[in-house]
Write a structure and sequence with these properties.
The chain contains 2 helices and 4 strands, in the order βαββαβ. By secondary structure, it is an alpha+beta fold.
Length: 74
Protein backbone atom coordinates (compact mmCIF):
# COMPACT_ATOMS: atom_id res chain seq x y z
CA UNK A 1 0.00 0.00 0.00
CA UNK A 2 1.32 3.42 -0.94
CA UNK A 3 1.09 6.10 1.75
CA UNK A 4 1.31 9.87 1.94
CA UNK A 5 2.13 12.05 4.96
CA UNK A 6 -0.52 14.60 5.88
CA UNK A 7 -0.50 17.28 8.56
CA UNK A 8 -3.26 18.99 10.50
CA UNK A 9 -1.88 22.53 10.66
CA UNK A 10 -4.45 23.51 13.31
CA UNK A 11 -2.94 20.93 15.68
CA UNK A 12 0.71 21.53 14.75
CA UNK A 13 2.62 23.56 17.34
CA UNK A 14 5.87 23.81 15.36
CA UNK A 15 7.96 21.61 17.67
CA UNK A 16 9.98 20.34 14.70
CA UNK A 17 10.26 16.76 15.99
CA UNK A 18 8.90 15.40 12.72
CA UNK A 19 11.79 16.90 10.75
CA UNK A 20 14.28 15.43 13.23
CA UNK A 21 12.67 12.00 12.96
CA UNK A 22 12.18 12.02 9.17
CA UNK A 23 14.62 14.55 7.69
CA UNK A 24 14.44 13.04 4.21
CA UNK A 25 10.67 13.55 4.13
CA UNK A 26 10.01 16.72 6.11
CA UNK A 27 11.55 20.18 5.96
CA UNK A 28 10.79 23.07 8.28
CA UNK A 29 9.79 26.53 7.15
CA UNK A 30 11.43 29.60 8.66
CA UNK A 31 8.96 29.55 11.57
CA UNK A 32 9.65 25.89 12.40
CA UNK A 33 6.51 24.42 10.87
CA UNK A 34 6.72 21.32 8.66
CA UNK A 35 6.70 21.40 4.90
CA UNK A 36 5.69 18.04 3.44
CA UNK A 37 6.22 16.78 -0.04
CA UNK A 38 2.98 15.99 -1.88
CA UNK A 39 4.67 12.89 -3.30
CA UNK A 40 3.65 9.48 -1.96
CA UNK A 41 6.04 7.41 0.13
CA UNK A 42 6.97 4.75 -2.38
CA UNK A 43 9.81 2.95 -0.60
CA UNK A 44 9.37 0.91 2.57
CA UNK A 45 12.19 2.91 4.20
CA UNK A 46 10.22 6.11 3.55
CA UNK A 47 7.09 4.57 5.06
CA UNK A 48 9.04 3.50 8.17
CA UNK A 49 10.45 7.00 8.51
CA UNK A 50 6.96 8.48 8.08
CA UNK A 51 5.54 6.18 10.77
CA UNK A 52 8.36 7.22 13.12
CA UNK A 53 7.50 10.89 12.56
CA UNK A 54 3.78 10.26 13.14
CA UNK A 55 4.49 8.44 16.42
CA UNK A 56 6.93 11.13 17.56
CA UNK A 57 4.74 14.17 16.91
CA UNK A 58 3.99 15.72 20.34
CA UNK A 59 0.84 17.43 19.01
CA UNK A 60 -0.45 14.34 17.14
CA UNK A 61 -0.71 16.53 14.04
CA UNK A 62 0.78 14.06 11.54
CA UNK A 63 -0.91 11.08 9.96
CA UNK A 64 -0.30 8.64 7.15
CA UNK A 65 -3.07 8.18 4.60
CA UNK A 66 -3.32 5.60 1.84
CA UNK A 67 -2.94 7.02 -1.64
CA UNK A 68 -6.06 6.42 -3.68
CA UNK A 69 -5.38 5.31 -7.20
CA UNK A 70 -8.11 5.39 -9.84
CA UNK A 71 -9.29 2.02 -11.11
CA UNK A 72 -9.13 1.59 -14.84
CA UNK A 73 -11.62 -0.70 -16.46
CA UNK A 74 -11.20 -2.24 -19.89
Amino acid sequence: MTLRLKIDMERCAGHGMCALLAPALIDLDRWGFPVLSPEPLTAEAEARSGRRAVRGCPAAALRLEPVRTPHHSQ
